[in-house]
Structures are given as C-alpha cells and as structure tokens.
Amino acid sequence: MANPTTPEPTRRDFLYIATGAAATLGVGLAAWPFIDSLNPSTAVLAMASVEADLSAIQPGQQVIFKWRGHPLFVRRRTPKEIAAARAVSPSDLPDGLARNANLTESAPATDANRTIKPEWLVLVGVCTHLGCTPAVSTREAPQGSYGGWLCHCHGSDFDASGRIRKGPAPQNLAVPPYAFIGPTKIRIG
Amino acid sequence: MKTASLLLALGMALAAPAFAAEDLTQPLPPRDAKWSFEGLFGTYDRGALQRGFLVYKEVCAACHGLNLVAFHDLAAPGGPGFTVAEAKAIAAGYKIPAEPNDRGDIFDDKGNRLTRPGTLADHFPPPFANDEAARANNNGSLPSDLSLIVKARQGGPNYLYSLLTGFNLKVPHGFAVADGKYYNPYFPGRAIAMPPPLNQGSVSFNDGTSATVTNEAKAVVTFLTWASEPELEARHRIGLQVLAFLVLLAGLLFLSYRKVWHGKKEE
Amino acid sequence: MAGHSHYLPKTGFSRWLDQRLPVIRLVNDQFVTFPTPKNLNFWYTFGVILTVMLVLQIVTGIVLAMHYVPTADLAFGSVEQRIMREVNYGWLIRTLHASGASMLFVAVYIHMGRSLYYGSYKAPREILWILGVVLYLLLMATAFFGYTLQWGQMSYWAATVITSLFTAFDQIIPHFGTALSTWVRGDYAVGDATLNRFFSLHYLLPFVIVGVVGLHIWALHVPGNSNPLGIDVKGPQDTVPFHPWYTVKDAFYLTLFLIVFMGFVFYAPNFFSNPDNYIQADPLVTPSEIRPEWYLLPFYAMLRAIPNTLLGVLVLFGAMLTPLFVPWLDTSKVRSCRFRPVMKQLFWVFVATCILLGYVGAHTTDAAWHLGEVDIPLVWLARLGTLYYFAFFWALMPWIGKTEVTRPVPESIAQAVLKKGAVVAKGGEQ
After folding, report:
1. Is 70 exceeded by the pLDDT of residue C59?
2. Do C334 and C401 meet the contact criterion of CB atoms below 8 Å apart?
3. Which B residues in the span 119-148 are in contact with C, Cβ-Cβ below 8 Å?
C-alpha cells in the first residue's frame, strides 16, 4: 500500500529510533508506580518493628506475638530443655547453620547461637517448608519426638532450639532480628 | 455571531456582583496569603511545619482530631522533617486507647479507659471519645477533623488563614451575632461557634519566631496543608520530571510527524 | 474499503500461525496498512486518545480496587488514608484515575462534536455512531458509579439524588417508582448495599465498554474513516496507510493531550473535584450546594429546568437518548458542515447551548444574571437551552437538511488537496 511518491522511511533513521526509544522508555517508567504500589505500604512498614513484654511468661511456656503478620514464638525454656538442646552437635543436624538474623550467615547451629539469653528463645513461627505454623510441644501436650515444635502440615519436627530434626523442612526456624531493651522486654525488627 | 453576544452577556453577568454593596449573608472572599508550597517548584517550609505542629498540638488538638495522620508521617520525606527519634518521642507523649490487657479489660477499676503510650504506627488520637461527646463539650457544634480540612474547604489554605486571622473584627452595623457565636466575616453565615483560637503568645516557638497571631496562623495552615496533602512535594517533583519528559517526547514526535508527512499533502 | 489483505507472512512460524489464527494479519490489515483518508485533521486524533485513556482508566482502576474497601464505614478511609497516604504512589494512581475520568469526557465531547460537525454519523456509518452513543451512555453510568465510591458528601448525595429519580415513576404507577428506587439502592436510603453493588458495577462496566469499543472499531473499519470533506474515498490516491502516517500524528497529539492531563494531575489534582467530597458521607446532613460532576451538568440543568419531576426525568432520559436517532434526523445529502453554511451556525449555537446548560447546572436553582436593573433567572436560560437542544435534533436537523443551499462539494479528496493552494479564502476552520 506504500505510495510510490513517498518511499517508506528507512528503519535506520535516527529520529525514528530516538522517538520510539523515548516512547518505550516513557511507558516503562510509567509502569513503576503501578508495580511499587503493590509493595507493602507505609502503614505496613510502620508496624515492621514491635516491642514485646516477656515478664508474664512462665518457664516452659510459649507466648505468641505478631510480627509482620507472622506469629512470633517467644519460649521461656527450662534448664532441662536448654541442657538437652546444648547436647546436640551442629554437625549431626540436617541444617547446620544458626539462621539467626543477629549473627553472620555462616554461624553454626549451636544452641548458644540460637538465642541472645539462653532462657529466651525467640523464633519466627513459620515452618521453613511451606509456611504453616508449627505446634509447640509442652509437658501437657507433647508434639513430635524432639520436645520442640511439630508442623502438622507435613510433619517437620523441631527441637527445643527450633532446629529441624526430621521431616521436609530444609532449614531451622528463623531467629528474627531482635534486641533486649529491658530485662524482660524485647524489640523485634 | 450569536456566540459572541452570549459571551458578552456572560461577561456582564460575572462582572455585575462587583458593584453590589457588601452582602452580609455572604462570606468575604479569602485573602491571598503567599505560600511556599504554591507553584511548580513549591515545597513546604520545614520551620513553618514544625511550628505549625506545635500550634496544632497546643491549641487545635484540644477540640480537633487529625485522625488520618500517623506519627511516622512526622518523620516521612516531604513532611515536617522530624527525625525518627523525635517522632517516636512525640508519639510516646500521646495516650492511645490500649488493647485489652491480660484480664481482657479495657477499663481500670475506676472505669477509666486504659491507655498506652503511642508508637510510630499509631495515629493522632481523637480529642473526644465520639461525636456525641464532642458536641456535648462544644455547645452542640461538632469540631471538624482537620486531616483533610484544606482540601475540604473552598479556598483551601487562604480560607483557613483568613478565618484564623479574621476574629475580633468590628461587627458591621445591623448584623446580629447569636449567643455563643463569634463574628468572622470569612465563615459562611459570618458567625462561627469556634472561639478565637489563636492569641498573641498562644504558644512559644523555640526557633525565635515571634508568636503573633499572623505567624501562628501561617504556621498552622502550612502544617494542615501538609496534613491534607502529604504527597505535595513528591507530586511537584515528579510532575516536573513527567512534564519535561513529555515535552521532549512531543518535540521528537513533532519532528517525526513532519518527516513522515513531508511531501504528503494533508489539509 | 476494508478491502483485501496485503499481509504476506515472511517466516515459517508466521505462515504456520496465519493458517491457524491470523492475528498478525488482523493487526497488519487493520492498524498498519489500513487505508486512511489523507486529509484527517487534528480533531480526528481523539479516537486514539480515547482508547489510550480507557486503557489507563482500567489499569489505574484495577490497581485502586486492590486497595479499596467497598463498605460504608471504611470506603472513605480506604481512599483518603490508605490509597492517598499509605500505598506507594497511591496518590498518583488515584489522581490519574479521578482526573482521568474528566479528561476522558473532555475527549468524548470533542470526539462526538467532531462527528456531528463533519456528519460522520451519516450512511454508511449509522451503526458506528449508535455504538458511539451507547459507549457514551455506558461511560456516564460508569463514571457515576465510580464517583459514589469515594463516599464523600458529594458522592453520597449524588447517589441519593440519581437513585431518587426513579421515584418519579410513582406518578405513572403508584408505589412503583419508590419500589424501583429501593430496589436499586438495596436499602431505604443509599447505604452499604448500594455502595457494594455500585462497586461491582463500576468494575464490570469498563469491560463491557471495551467490548463495545471493539464493535465500534469494527464498524469503523468496514466503511473506513469519514473525513473533513465528508466525501467518499475514490481510490488509493485519496488515502495513506495508517502506519506510520497516522500512528505518528496520533502519537504527537496524544502527547500534547497527556501534557495537559499531567498538568492537572500534578499541579491541580483537585481541579475537577468538589471540596465537599473531602468530607466523609453523612446521611444526616446534605451539603448546602450539591451538583454532579461537570460532564453531567447540562443534563442536570435540564432536569431542574422542568418544574414537574416526572416530566423532568423524561426530558433527562430523552436528552440522553436523542443522539441515537441523529443518523435519520439529519436529512441532508451533504455530510460535512464545511459545505453546509446554515448547519454550521446551528452547530456552534448547539455547542454554546451545551456550555450554557453546563453553566446553569453548576449554579443554584435560584441563581440569576443581573443585567443592569433586570434579573434573568438562570432557570429560564436552562429552559431556553433545553428547548434548543431538542429543537436542534428533532426540528432543525430534518428541516435544514431539506431546505439548506449547500456549497459545492469537491470531486475527490486528492483533487481538494491539490486545489487547496488556490482556494485560500476558505473560512476560519482547518
């Protein structure tokens, strides 16, 4: 259909390439606000850091807080539980890394590396397999064979240090970034 | 042309009210105060925002809420420019209705609402528990929430500024102000239930600005404009970039357009 | 004019695809080589502008719906707090959507006005025009539902007034109108149920619009574009391929349109909105002055110009549906107003009337013009305007079309273009 009197402009023409490139760039840049609008909002980010008061937690008891929409386990461990957890060598574990956001990534999964104060175990309550919340094992209602947590979705079994011992979970339960801001008060995130 | 005579009639009609005597049933048009946030490059005056926050906190907050504004906004870009630590301290100074405690109570033994210190995630707490309590404390009038006040009033910042500085004027002859109301020519109906909120020295600014009514009004209107339009600075900045880009693109397209159509007659 | 295809698949894959699903052929024939009259002017670029605006409204709308909550308690806060303050770029997407609705109507009115002026609705393009009017009605409904969603005072009372229009039918069948109004609202007053169904419809209708736009473009591509001369294309010498001639021209004017649009978005985001809509809906307090969005104002003025509610509602619906009959109301043999001196004048009076009606619609019912000692109540201007609106379509169009002495129409587009240099004193239009 091209008219013989006006030959079709050459594709190498710089002007057309520049115009096309500018238009494409514009559409690309305009897409960013739409993509970014799906990220967590400022209200969500403002909740990213929470404080928790641990003073009411009894030895052997676990309390669940909420952090970034996930359950956050805070367990006050008994000396017996600590001793049992310390007796395990990281080299015998399916996941030998501490997975502690407060330490380097290569820190080994010793029980000491899983806590800041041995009595208080703070964990993100999300199974590292597919994201279910594991059930805590207590004296009254034991769960699994390692005295920690059992995930009912696919049977991942964690010990009293939150380390994976048996089942499909590839990693130990994550320790979130947190710090003690008082004897029994922590800030998470 | 017929349209021309219509336009003429329209122009005359629009010009006509200017010759009329002052109509006391109508409010005065707001005075034009100059604002740093106007125009293509407009940004907020940080000092005015921080002073305005102080005026809001010390004066307005007794009756007016700011329920859409969160404490973390005070430290957000384009805002009053408080540091995160300062915003936290400000938040902690407010009492927020507490969540149920371990016993499930939200009231103490004496029936008072339990509170906790505010955090960055909290919003400014309302001054009254509900609208009924607000009316009961204000002669039956409901003080507006100020989160959107600048966008919710014709005239925006100029209107608010005129209103805040429009008290204590001489009441025109023949205009009766009802009991419990105050004359203010910028308010619709010219009689407002709000007592004059700002006085010389209502607050003390720590940056050396003298606390005149004008300065207080200017500061608090800047703060409330930010509360209504926290995105204004980003909007102006991105707007310039977008317009510059589009003008460039239009230029390129125009050259391409001329080149494509060269020699091809169009009308 | 759609003619036979000039598409030649070049690669093995495109040949394979072409025998199974000829989409490349479709795009090539309809949007690349499509023969387009070479004399289309600036006013013909609004079809592409409208397509882009519709896509933009849908994209921004889908993202907004991800953050919006359609309940009476939370709707206002989900817009003014969550979207405007918390969501990343939420303020931008919301402003694009709200100002975009107004800019879309600016383009719609120009597009329709261009059609009227150049007689683009005349045979063989009647269906094309009717589909366009259907799109206009669908857009108005969509915009109305969308305006409700912000749940500000204007949203709430606009929804109340519009849904109350149905009660006028009580004058025909007692209680039927009220029952209909209650059914539309799902409540005795506008409330949660109303908001939720309006949200659903506001999300649904745009996709119906996309479908009708598809039909509209189909109906355009069967006879091909009309043109400012209003004469048929005689052969290849009268046309150019759509690409690159019109792609680049439309892109240029689209960019100019976007510059104006972005000016509003970034520097006057509240230009098209009403301050009262920044106050949350309050079913117990009506704002002192309520008015619809600007693009509905002419119809609002007509509604208020008629003292009887039922008659007013009928006039309103009549005014909205009248354009559907235009292809048969216009009896002229000549399409373009360029060659119709009387119709051209009547057209511009019609445009002025619509603006006047819009002006009246924006003022209170008791407003008046003061010309010296004389007061002209605006409601009388609205009545005159309403009269002209209907007379223009139902009386002047059929009558003038038969009696008007038209100016000579050129033989062909190519001839007119060549002669243009000789005919300089052609009048004040492009």
Report:
1. yes
2. no
3. 144, 147-148
Spatial CB neighbours of B58, under 8 Å, sequence gap ≥ 6: B202, B203
Q: Which residues of A touch C236 (CB under 8 A)?
A: 1, 3
Radius of gyration of chain C measured on its C-alpha atoms: 24
Rounded Cα distance between B219 and B34, Å, is: 12
Q: Which tokens go with C7? A: 């598409």
The interface predicted TM-score of the complex, written ipTM, equals 0.92
The torsion angles phi and psi of C230, rounded to 5 degrees, stand at 70, 20
Nearest to B125 by CA among B157, B98, B159: B98
* Closest CB from C228, C266, C269 relative to B242: C266
Mean pLDDT by groups of 10 residues along chain A of 189 residues: 49 83 95 95 85 88 90 94 91 92 92 94 95 91 91 94 94 94 89
| Chain B neighbors of C359, CB-CB under 8 A | 10
Least confident of A42-46, B50-54, C329-333, C401-405: A42-46
Q: B246 and C84 in contact by Cβ < 8 A?
A: no
The model's pLDDT over B177-208, given as tens digits with 9 standing for 90+, comes to 988 899 999 999 999 999 999 999 999 999 99
Could you tell me the domains of chain C? 1-31 (no CATH), 34-273+282-290 (1.20.810.10)
**Cβ <8 Å between A42 and B120:** no
Reported as a single tens digit per residue, the pLDDT across C193-250 is 999 999 999 999 999 999 999 999 999 999 999 999 999 999 999 999 999 999 999 9
Provide the mean pLDDT of chain C: 93
SS3 content of chain A, % helix, strand, coil (to 5): 25, 25, 50
Q: Which of C255, C263, C376 sits opposite B249 (nearest CB)?
A: C255
Are the Cβ atoms of A34 and C93 closer than 8 angstroms?
yes
- The tens digit of pLDDT for each residue in C306-364 reads 999 999 999 999 999 999 999 999 999 999 999 999 999 999 999 999 999 999 999 98
Query: Which residues, at least 6 apart from A95, have a Cβ–Cβ distance to it below 8 Å?
Result: A109, A163, A164, A170, A171, A172
Q: What is the pTM of this model?
A: 0.90
- pLDDT number for residue B16: 46
Nearest CA of chain C to the CA of A179: how many Å?
28
* Distance, CA of C253 to chain centre: 18
Tell me what the pLDDT averaged over chain B comes to.
89
CA-CA distance, C238 to B70, in Å (whole number)? Answer: 64
pLDDT confidence band for B1 (50 / 70 / 90): very low
B253 vs C contacts (CB less than 8 Å): 248, 251-252, 255
- Please pick, among A70, A129, A152, A154, the residue that the annotation labels catalytic: A154
Distance from CA of C33 to the nearest CA of A (A): 6
Rounded to whole angstroms, how far apart are CA atoms C272 and B120? 34
C-beta atoms of A15 and B72 within 8 A: no
- CA distance to partner chain B, nearest, from residue C137 (Å): 28
Residue A16 and residue B256: Cβ atoms within 8 Å?
yes
Q: Does residue A25 sit in helix, strand or coil?
A: helix
Confidence at residue A8, expressed as pLDDT on a 0 to 100 scale: 54
> Kindly report the CA angle at C367 between C365 and C368, in degrees rounded to 5?
135
A70 is catalytic: no
Q: Could you give the dihedral angle defined by the CA atoms of residues A95, A98, A99 and A101, in that order, rounded to the nearest 10 degrees?
A: -170
CB atoms within 10 A of CB C18: 16
Question: Please, how many CA atoms are within 13 Å of residue C142, restricted to the half-sphere of its CB?
Answer: 25
pLDDT band, residue C19 (cuts 50/70/90): very high
By the 10 Å C-beta count (0-12 exposed, 13-18 middle, 19+ buried), C208 is classed as middle
**Minimal Cα–Cα distance from C94 to chain A, Å?**
11
Residue type at C38 in one-letter notation: K
Task: Report how far residue C373's alpha carbon sits from residue A64's, in angstroms, rounded to the nearest whole number.
Answer: 79
